[in-house]
Amino acid sequence: MTALAALAATLSDAALAASAVPQLSLAQELTLEDAYAVQRAGIELRSARGDRPVGLKLGFTSRAKAEQMGVHDVIVGVLTARMQVPDGDSVDRASFIHPRIEPEIAFRLGRAVDLSDPTDDLADAVIAIAPALEIIDSRYRDFSFSLADVVADNTSAAAFVVGAWQGFGLAGGGTDVSNLGVVLEVDGRVVETGSTAAILGNPLRALDSFKRMARLHGLELPSGSVLLAGAATAAVPLTSGSVVEASVTGLGRVSVRVSGGTHD
Ligand code: OOG
Ligand code: MG
Question: Closest Cα partner for 218 from 5, 46, 44?
Fold first, then answer.
C-alpha cells in the first residue's frame, strides 16, 4: 500500500467506525495534489465494498460556509450511491461522528459532459434541479481541518437527500435560480435562512466550477450525475430524534429524520 492509500484507509476506517482521527496534516506534509489522490483512493475503497460514484459536490461556494470552517477555496468531492437517502427517510445518528446538515440545491445531468472539450457547456447538460440536504461529517477530531485535510476526507461528504426533481433546461430559458429563498428548519423551527445567491452569486456559476475542478482532478461527469452546488447557509448539528427540512422557493421541500444514536 502506498503512503497515500494508507491515509485513505485511515479515513475510511474512521468513517466505518464512526470514530474521529487526528488531522492528517498534523503528522505529515500533505499537498493539495496528495489530498485529491487520498480522496480518489478513498472512493476506490468504497467501490471495492460495492458502492459507486453517482455525482460530485462542491464545498465552500458560499461565504457562510467558508467563514464557518475557516477555509476559503472551492473544493470538490464525490457522492456515492450509498450516501443517498430517499427524501423523507431516516438516517441513524450512530452511523456518524459529529454530523451537521446544510441546505443545498442539486442539479442532474441529462448527458455526459466531455471535460476535454472547452466548448461543451455543463449548464447545457443540466436537465433537472431540486432542493437538497447534505449531511457532512468530518472524520477529523473537533470537525477541524486544513484545506488539504478536508479534500482528503472527500470534503466531509457523509449523506445527501434530494427532493423532487423539476425539469430544467437553459434552452427554454431555464428557471431563474439566481436568488431563491432558502430556509432550513429543525422540528419545524427555522434555524437558518439564506438565498441561492449565496452560492457563488448564482448557483449556475457552480457549474463552471464543477467543470474546472472535475477536469483538474480527473473526475468524470457521466449522464445522470447529481451535482450538489454547495450549502447556501452555515451547517447545523444533526441531533437524534429530529426532523430536518429545507425549502427553496419555487423548488419545493426536502426532509430527513434522524433516528437512534448514543452520541448526543
Ligand atoms: C466541508 C464541506 C463543505 C459545502 O457545502 O460548502 C460543503 C465541511 O464543511 O466540512 O459541503
Ligand atoms: Mg455541502
Answer: 44
